[in-house]
Amino acid sequence: MEVDVTENKPKQILVGTDGSPDAQRALLYAGRVALQSGHENARVRIVHAVDEAVLAGTWGVMYDLSGLEEAGNEILHAAMKIVQEAGVPADRIDAEVRLGRPAQVLVEASGDADLAVTGRRARSSIERLFVGSTSVALAASSHCPVIVLGQDQPSPTPPGAGVLVGVDPSGLSEQAIAFGHDWATRAEWGLTLLHVNRSQPSWLLGSMPSKEQSAAQSDASRGGVAALAERVGAQQAKIEVVQGDPADELIGRSADYGLLVLGAHRGNPNLVGGVIRGVLTHARCPVAVLPQG
User: Fold this and answer.
1) C-alpha–C-alpha distance, residues 162 and 184, integer Å
2) What domains appear along the chain, each with residue ranges and CATH number?
3) How do residues 19-67 score in pLDDT, each as one tens digit?
4) Which of 41, 72, 38, 42 is closest to 55 using CA atoms?
């Protein structure tokens, strides 16, 4: 199933909640997205997952499911209040408790959504290795674009912000550019398309490329990015081609943007590429991931 970004006006914005500060930030962000230009009729769907794994306690004692559902309803009530305080009317908010592992529940729910929003947990050195299993699983397997939030990141439309799209030759970039172009247009932001030619060590190449060779490579990359931009109507985007490490370049620029957009292969979360994992962990702005394939 391909992510359809030809009509980027979400009719349903999905956000999971467990009552944590990460979830609260995601709820606030989702509420603000629902109020953006072009999203006036979007609904916010809040889902709280009750993991079956917590139903079996020590020595096989089963917890009372009704009690967990009651606690879940309290979490949902607080979540709905956050979205309403963001300005979304109550009649545009849906909330439900679902049984299952959070990542699986959200991936399944994403099949009916146009956009998903999730917070990430990566405070300790160990957590940073995994970014947050739910966030990675959703970003890897979602049926709709996913926006992953770090700590203390801006609202969807901070003044003077822009959209940065990471562009590569893998075939995933066209939809990422289309998504970024649509977001930038509605938010009245600038759009930058960044392609990074990965640096290779001289011992691997045998010798350093000449200035002429580097210039030719940059020109070819710029032409490829321009062709992709033209196909989705983003001819006015600023194109940057640099040499370096893709993750480092994207992370280093992220603080200057309101949204960073990346395409990704849909599949096993354990196979999410190192660039995306690194960006999700260290980016200084929200990251939109478009799983495809």
Assistant:
1) 7
2) 12-149 (3.40.50.620), 162-287 (3.40.50.620)
3) 999 999 999 999 999 998 777 789 999 999 987 766 655 455 556 667 7
4) 72
